[in-house]
Design brief:
By secondary structure, the protein is an alpha/beta fold. Helices cover 36% and strands 20% of the residues. The chain contains 15 helices and 17 strands. Helix 6 runs parallel beside helix 7 and helix 7 packs antiparallel against helix 15. The two termini are 41 Å apart.
Length: 465
């Protein structure tokens, strides 16, 4: 860290107000230099990383495209259970791409594959990740890293035992905006944290997971038996369950596992928290009555106890798939002296800062007027003697606004960080422990909702109490 940067952070934590211009300068300049160096880096033959993507749905294609922005990364194989997506992969990435319906063909038989991207339905994340690490593959696993809380410790142990690179795909952990927000938080810019509000609102069918189903869907074109082979309850072929799996508990984790986990990943990253101690969630299936068995509106209240990393605070999470506001997302971290508002998808933030007056105030909405005039005068005279005008005035500061560069993409940086770890053995930005500590409280929200009870969580040992 440069001496100028140390001075910058030191001032930020004391009396110097950071302007939006200086914040943007420090934030964008450093990170842009890092990304430029990555883009310009010459990659030799020994630096090439050969990858395979398992699950070529929405996230499979998006993750693959983000991975291929990193120099020296080559896609050599793809796996999916719908023949049409394998055909599409060849259209996009070349007719010579190796494709299969069995992920084991990639992680066991293909010794030339260095890393796999796991972008399947949630119910397959953990098993494929474990199999891949045992087979010597680096793993980039979509969130949530597990389908059930009971799977987490085994996956962590596998990563520990195999020493393979493993990273969870919650890109906010690599976002330059979140890095800057974390620095601001740690520098004391909002005082002592006490609460966080975070939400995702949507108002459209695609946002509510009513994805387009292909016309050629059929049991002949979909490997339905393999898809549901690890599910406790078996069903006859149902295209909605396959192409819209997020709507079903048997294969997905609902709004909690899909969206709460993004929110908690960012919150844990900024605050340094290992997780909460109490979780309670409520919800309804209020609008999208399309056969799904998970709620489309869900709220959770989560309590974080005091630890060495942070004071006690509470988090409220909300997802609304039928929101009349047209769709929005935010995370607001509130402290005693300000608020960090990470709006949108985390591409920037605003800090609104106010300091409480030293004087308690007198008059207005107060019991003063209920006393005799003589008593009121005596009280006001005494108040004015004890406090100066400065002590009576609330300190308000200009907003600090940071926005990432227009061409910035946190997913690209998340993959760049992952492949740096694959090449150099450096620590990943979101390992199995971090990923599980973010996912487990979200899955506990589902347990709380379906079982109508408070879930107590041991964040240190990562288990339900």
């Amino acid at each position: 860290m440069s001496s100028d940067r140390r001075k910058f952070l030191k001032h930020l934590g004391t009396s110097v107000l950071l302007t939006s211009a200086s914040l943007t300068s420090f934030a964008a300049r450093e990170e842009q230099e890092i990304r430029t160096l990555r883009a310009q880096k010459r990659v030799g033959p020994n630096d090439k990383i050969r990858i395979a993507t398992i699950g070529m749905g929405i996230m499979g294609f998006n993750d693959t495209n983000a991975a291929l922005t990193v120099p020296g990364v080559e896609l050599v194989a793809a796996c999916d259970l719908y023949k049409g997506r394998l055909a599409r992969a060849k259209e996009v990435y070349g007719a010579g791409l190796f494709t299969t319906e069995d992920y084991r063909d990639l992680i066991i038989d293909r010794k030339d594959i260095d890393a796999v991207i796991i972008a399947t339905s949630d119910n397959w994340h953990s098993q494929i990740a474990i199999d891949a690490m045992i087979a010597g593959k680096a793993v980039y696993s979509e969130k949530p890293m597990v389908h059930q809380i009971s799977q987490g410790l085994a996956e962590i142990k596998t990563q520990h035992d195999t020493k393979m690179v493993f990273q969870v795909g919650s890109q906010r952990v690599s976002s330059i905006a979140y890095k800057k927000a974390k620095e601001m938080y740690e520098a004391g810019s909002i005082g002592k944290i006490n609460s966080i509000e975070a939400s995702f609102n949507r108002q459209d069918a695609l946002g509510a997971w009513q994805y387009t189903i292909p016309l050629d869907q059929s049991v002949q074109n979909v490997n339905w038996a393999r898809f549901q082979s690890n599910a406790k309850a078996k069903y006859d072929y149902d295209p909605k369950r396959f192409f819209r799996w997020r709507n079903y508990r048997e294969y997905g984790t609902g709004v909690a596992g899909d969206l709460f986990v993004h929110l908690l990943s960012g919150i844990h990253f900024i605050t340094g928290s290992k997780g909460p101690e109490k979780i309670y969630a409520i919800g309804d299936l209020s609008y999208w009555k399309d056969g799904r068995n998970v709620p489309d509106v869900m709220s959770a209240v989560i309590h974080y106890g005091e630890t060495k990393e942070h004071p006690a605070f509470q988090v409220t999470l909300r997802v609304n798939f039928a929101s009349g506001d047209g769709g929005s997302s935010t995370t607001k971290i509130t402290g005693s002296e300000g608020v960090i508002d990470l709006g949108g998808d985390g591409e920037g933030f605003t800090i609104r800062k106010n300091k409480m007056t030293q004087a308690p105030g007198i008059g207005g909405w107060d019991s003063l007027s209920t006393y005799t005039e003589a008593q009121q005068k005596a009280l006001i005279d005494d108040y004015n003697k004890r406090y100066t005008e400065a002590q009576k005035t609330r300190q308000k500061f200009p907003d600090v606004i940071y926005k990432a560069p227009d061409d910035y993409n946190a997913s690209n940086d998340h993959f760049a960080n992952f492949f740096d770890s694959v090449r150099n053995g450096t620590k990943v930005v979101e390992d199995a422990v971090f990923g599980f500590r973010a996912a487990a409280p979200c899955l506990a929200c589902n347990d709380s909702y379906f079982e109508n009870r408070v879930i107590r969580w041991d964040a240190e040992n990562m288990k339900i109490v």
